Amino acid sequence: MKNDFIDKLTKSISRLPSLGPRSAKRIVLHMLRHKEKVFQPLVEHMHEVMNNITTCTQCGNFDTNNPCSICTDPKRDTQLVCVVESVADIWAMERSHYFKGRYFVLGGVLSAMEGTTPETLKFHKLLQQVEEHDVTEVILALSATVEGQTTSHYLAEYLRPAGVKLTALAQGMPIGGEIDYLDDGTIVAALGARKPITEYQS
């Protein structure tokens, strides 16, 4: 049986990460079977998020306020900045309650195939914030993938003239690992054992 409304919803859901047509169909069927308990609250929550969540113009985080609650937290060390690929990485880092500085979301990594350049990732904005806030250390917390490490090396060269201390995640960060998928203990170990980029490259 074909229904345009259901088909459109299924196609929309199937475009979400880690979901395909079959998973999307199961989700739609579940929501239709439980309209009052699942479907209606989901629609309401999606509207709330869409209408109230914004992007922080300082770090790129998602929050109800701009600047976000992390950037405006007086207890945060403004001279310590952790550079991550996505907001999901901020959420992962915050779970550990270990990092006490601020963040900067690149929004991806350098990729010639996808046309992602330093301009696309706003390297200049990161450098501007480093200089404006007298940042003393920048932690490059990018994924241990080829693209992530290439971006780390490029960023290290880009930021070096600013005279800031550059460090990268060390032990505990597995090769090919993405921060969003690491457990809290691994993140804490990787942050605690971070080392200078010069040593990291050798």
List its traits.
202 residues; alpha/beta; Helicase, Ruva Protein, domain 3; Dna Topoisomerase Vi A Subunit, Chain: A, domain 2; 2 domains; 5-stranded mixed β-sheet; two-stranded antiparallel ribbon; 7 strands; 44% helix; elongated
User: Poorly predicted ranges (pLDDT <50, ≥5 residues)?
Assistant: 172-177
Overall shape: elongated
SSE order, one letter for each helix or strand: HHHEEEHEHEHEHEH
**What is the subunit arrangement here?**
single chain
The rounded distance between the terminal residues' Cα atoms is: 61 Å
Radius of gyration: 20 Å
The main pleated sheet reads as:
5 strands, mixed
Averaged pLDDT, please? 86
Strand order within the widest sheet? 4-3-5-6-7
How many separate helices?
8
Going by CATH, the architecture of the largest domain would be 3-Layer(aba) Sandwich
In total, the number of domains comes to 2
Query: What is the top-level CATH class of the largest domain?
Result: Alpha Beta
Strand percent estimate: 5-15%
Counting helices, strands and paired strands, the structural category is: alpha/beta
- CATH topology term of the largest domain: Dna Topoisomerase Vi A Subunit, Chain: A, domain 2
Residues in helices, as a percent range: 40-55%
Work out the number of β strands: 7
